[in-house]
């Protein structure tokens, strides 16, 4: 399915984006929600019960809720994480992850040796695939799922490694395009920060998650399967997310409307989660050439 970004982003700065308190009045306009996970459904420490209640109610009214995440893990592994946060299964129909897209790419590179740049916890991304692992100096390409230790490292910690990769012209698959993510009150670096640094050196990078097209296509295929094979019209699909760079830009490029949640990544740039500065927010949207349908502090019906 071809994206229709020109119909959404073209008038991004045309009007002030409204702040809404409740999702309920918007629900009737959509059949499918593509909902971000980290920052909308949970913050890496605790679940957002109100958000889960909104997704559950939307499904009860006949809609489909698909969790769309840049997590560098297959959907089954993401579900186990959601279970630990006590996210109810009634809150979603399916999960589509950047890890799922990455697995498809790895599966098509049979016989090539891969260097995994990322923590051991991300190894499920390779489960069941015919993969030949190799050290960096012998690898044919790199799958980057994150930093080895995101509690202490930064992208600058990888300056020499990225330079070595560039010297060998290694192709990088970025399994999580997020630059940072919330973990409680902290922000930690993700694979996207390393991928962007590598791209800045001239390295070739394929990004598997938001804001890039493949993950949206995979999500709409999943939505069609949930609807008996009928592909939903893009005007009836709403993306929900807290990141301008991934959620808003990705939705706009694909031709989708987006509901922007202020409880996540950008809160410190526009006042606070509870009292966002709409003027600052609209400046951010205009600078990115995107215009969400509305802004909401946190998902609430």
Q: Can you walk through the features of this model?
A:
By secondary structure, the chain is of the alpha/beta class. The protein has a domain at 110-207: HAD superfamily/HAD-like (Rossmann fold). 32% of the residues lie in helices and 18% in strands. The protein is built from 10 helices and 14 strands. The strands form 3 sheets. Strands 1-14-13-12-2-3-4 form a 7-stranded parallel β-sheet, sandwiched between helices. A 5-stranded parallel β-sheet has the order 6-5-7-8-11, covered by helices on one side. Strand 12 (237-241), helix 9 and strand 13 form a beta-alpha-beta unit. The radius of gyration is 19 Å and the shape is globular.
- Portion in beta strands: 15-25%
Helix-strand string? HEHEHEHEHEEEHEEEHEHEHEHE
Secondary-structure arrangement, i.e. CATH architecture of the domain at 110-207:
3-Layer(aba) Sandwich
Strand order of the largest sheet: 1-14-13-12-2-3-4
Kindly report how far apart the N and C termini lie: 31 Å
- For the secondary structure, the number of strands is 14
Structural class estimated from helices and strands: alpha/beta
Mean pLDDT: 91
Number of helices: 10
Q: How helix-rich are the residues, as a percent range?
A: 25-40%
What is the fold-level CATH name, i.e. the topology of the domain at 110-207? Rossmann fold
By CATH, the superfamily of the domain at 110-207 comes out as HAD superfamily/HAD-like
CATH class of the domain at 110-207: Alpha Beta
Report the radius of gyration as a whole number of Å: 19 Å
Q: Judging from the principal axes of the Cα atoms, what is the shape?
A: globular
Instruction: Specify the oligomeric state.
Output: single chain
> pLDDT below 50 for ≥5 consecutive residues: which ranges?
5-13
Major β-sheet profile: 7 strands, parallel
């Amino acid at each position: 399915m071809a994206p229709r970004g020109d119909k959404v982003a073209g008038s991004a700065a045309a009007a002030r984006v409204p702040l809404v308190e409740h999702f309920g009045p918007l629900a009737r306009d959509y059949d499918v929600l593509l909902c971000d996970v980290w920052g909308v459904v949970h913050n890496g420490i605790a679940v957002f019960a109100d958000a889960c209640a909104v997704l559950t109610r939307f499904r009860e009214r006949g809609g489909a809720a698909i969790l769309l995440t840049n997590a560098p893990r297959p959907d089954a592994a993401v579900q186990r994480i959601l279970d630990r946060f006590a996210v109810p299964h009634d809150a979603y129909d399916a999960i589509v992850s950047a890890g799922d897209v990455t697995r498809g790419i790895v599966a098509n590179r049979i016989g090539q040796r891969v260097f995994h740049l990322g923590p051991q916890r991300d190894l499920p991304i390779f489960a069941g695939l015919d993969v030949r692992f190799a050290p960096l100096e012998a690898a044919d390409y790199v799958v980057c799922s994150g930093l080895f230790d995101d509690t202490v490292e930064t992208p600058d910690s990888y300056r020499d490694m990225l330079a070595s990769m560039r010297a060998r012209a290694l192709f990088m698959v970025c399994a999580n395009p997020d630059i940072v993510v919330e973990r409680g009150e902290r922000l930690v670096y993700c694979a996207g920060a390393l991928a962007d640094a590598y791209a800045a050196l001239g390295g070739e990078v394929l990004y598997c998650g938001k804001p890039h097209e493949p993950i949206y296509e995979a999500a709409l295929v999943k939505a069609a399967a949930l609807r008996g094979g009928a592909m939903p019209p893009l005007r009836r699909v709403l993306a929900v997310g807290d990141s301008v760079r991934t959620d808003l830009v990705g939705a706009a490029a694909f031709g989708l409307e987006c509901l922007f949640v202020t409880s996540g990544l950008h809160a410190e740039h526009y006042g606070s989660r509870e009292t966002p500065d709409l003027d600052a927010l609209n400046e951010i949207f205009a600078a990115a050439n995107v215009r969400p349908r509305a802004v909401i502090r946190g998902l609430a019906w």
